[in-house]
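[09:14] KT: can someone run the structure on this one? pasting the chain below
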Amino acid sequence: MNLAIYIVVTSVTFIIMEGVTWCTHKYVMHGFGWYLHEDHHQPGYPHVFEKNDAFFVVFAIPSMLLFYFGIRPELNFLFFIGLGILLYGLAYFLVHDVLIHRRFKWFDKTNNQYLKGLRKAHKIHHKHLGKHHGECFGMLFVPFKYFNKRQ
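[09:31] RB: done, C-alpha cells below
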C-alpha cells in the first residue's frame, strides 16, 4: 500500500468513528451500559475518574489489537484503522474531557464558533440526568442549529 491509501484509510476510519460513537452513546451508554455512564450525567461528580471512563478502555482495546495485527507479518491497513481509532479517541478526549467538561483547564478561553457549538450541543445532552429522552449523542459532528450565532 502507498502513503495515500494509508492516509485515506486513517481518515475514513476517523469519520466512521463518529457514527460508532453516536451509536455506542445512544444504544449502549444510554442502554444496557447505563451503569457505567450514569455517573457522567450527575452534576458535580466529586471524583477524578468516573465509571464512564471505562469506555475509553473499551475503545482502546480494538485500536491496540489493530496496531498489533497491523504490523504482523509486515505493515498493513489494519495498523491505519487502529491509527484512525486512536486519533478519534484523542480528538474525543480533547473535545469532551478538556473543552466541554473542563476536567483539565487547557482551553478555557476559546472563542471559536465551532467549539462553542459543540459545548452547547453537549450541554443540551446533559440537561437530561436520566438515560431516557436524550438528544445530541454525537461528539464532533452535531446539528447545525447549535452553531447559530443568534442563540
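[09:33] KT: thanks! The CA atoms of residues 40 and 130 lie 10 Å apart.
[09:34] RB: yep, looked fine to me
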